[in-house]
Write a structure and sequence with these properties.
Length: about 90
């Protein structure tokens, strides 16, 4: 999932610059350093998005555990997460 998000973000960043040039009716290859910059910036945002989602799921499960509720359904399979918090009261429960 991480590589896919990075790839989608990179292509989106590159495409954003291409679309910007197309809308301005200038040559598509104008300012090529911006193509590269937005490519890497989009890849970084894609990677950060995956990390943010993992942190959010862990925080939600922690809040649910504090309230005595079970974790989210399919948490371990969600986004390819393979973690179990050892201090969770629901460790080992199915």
């Amino acid at each position: 999932m991480g590589f896919t998000a990075m790839l989608v973000g990179s292509v989106s960043g590159f495409g954003m610059q291409m679309m910007n040039n197309a809308l301005q009716k200038v040559p598509l290859s104008r300012k090529p350093w911006l193509h590269v910059t937005y490519f890497f910036l989009g890849g970084w945002i894609g990677q950060r998005w995956v990390r943010l989602e993992k942190e959010l799921v862990m925080d939600i499960n922690e809040i649910r555990a504090d309230k005595g509720m079970p974790p989210l359904i399919a948490t371990d399979r969600m986004l390819g997460l393979h973690y179990r918090r050892s201090d969770s009261p629901y460790v080992g429960q199915k």
